[in-house]
Amino acid sequence: MAGSKNEDEKYLVIFQPSGCRGYIQKGKTLKEASVALGVDLEGVCGEKAICGTCKVRIEEGNFEKYGIKSTRENLSPMGTTEKKFFNLRQQQDGYRLACQTHILGNVVIFVPEESRMGKQVVRKAATNRPMRVNPAVRKYCVELLKATLDNNVGDWERLQAELSKNFNLNHLTIDYEVLLDLQNTVREGDWKVTVSVWQGKEVIKIEPGFVEKAYGLAVDVGTSTVAGYLCDLTDGSVVTTASMMNPQVVYGEDVMSRISYTMTNPNGLEILNNAIIDGLNGIVSEVAAAAKIKRTDIVDMTLVGNTCMHHIFLNINPRYIGLSPFPPSHPPYITPLISRSVTGDSRCPRKLRRATKALIPPARWHVLLESMVRTSCISLPRENSVRPLKWSGLPFPLPGFLAVSALIPASLNAKGGR
Fold first, then answer.
1. Three-class secondary structure of residue 244 per DSSP
2. Does an H or E element contain 291, and which?
3. Spans of all domains in the chain
4. I want to staple 61 with a disulfide (CB 3.0 to 4.6 A). Which of 246, 265, 373, 381 is the partner?
5. Separation CA 358–CA 377 (nearest Å)
6. Inter-residue contact 271 to 61 (CB < 8 Å)
7. Is the pTM here over 0.70, yes or no?
């Protein structure tokens, strides 16, 4: 009788981002659970662990909305056959093969895009609106005089002089990472270079030869979906778009659920923050591939989102915007948040004004709350960031992210930006 009772045990299995859920008998595989709950999960080998297409990720933590605690211990251990499909990082992140993983307790499962048989289509079309093109980053083509024994002025001074003479750009600063490659870039272009200047103040990128096009990325981080629009900064046209389900959906379908997740899980904010950063990396890669450009060709980025999405993206604790009187954070490196509601409903000031106190000079931030459609704007210059980046000491997996649209390099994490 005891054995029969044990076999009749059922546990809650939740698949995200679809939200399909139900009670599944103990001992069933996640693949069997997906079939029972109507989740279209890839798998062409008949559950023989040959194709490796049914990869899923186990989410850990307290999910108060569902009243369960999801842990990897609620599933069967990973066997040697299954391990060959994952590297060490994936194993640490909780990836499993659905056909080989047996249910031993309540669990929340995230199905990656590549494992979904019926791909979710997210459409957020860009509208054509008359506007004056006035990008924050502009490109300037410059031909320098070659250095000689009679004229051995430094390359940066030489470049400053030409930019001042030809374009009236004075008192410029240069990003340290750009300065490191300046001499090689100048000679690679035979003393002809294209300089990207942010707000007429800082050189953030130098390319060999004459390069006409400049690209910027506008990203709308919604509670359910994320959409990216690659724009040509020379004429304001939209080159291509990409969209996806917000990867944070697995931790809560609405903003209050996500705020609750950060409050009830010790690493909740870090998990949600990493989820959206990974999602943005995917958007960047997709639009760059579609436009046949490099990710580092994107020299500026604007990100919008409601108050909760803004806090999580910046790795700011959203706890207090979920508690009366719902005050948002106001760090010194962003403009004041004009909304006092979780959803970010408010009017937009006419102009974006740059914060006067930046914690780290090489990173330029603009944050602004407006409406549900466009609620916070962030401009993130950064050049050739091939190393992992950090914000408040936490790692961001953004190698090669957006040329000047990465966050803050690990080497500049100290105060003062030394």
1. strand
2. helix 268-291
3. 2-115, 137-208, 215-417
4. 265
5. 16
6. yes
7. no
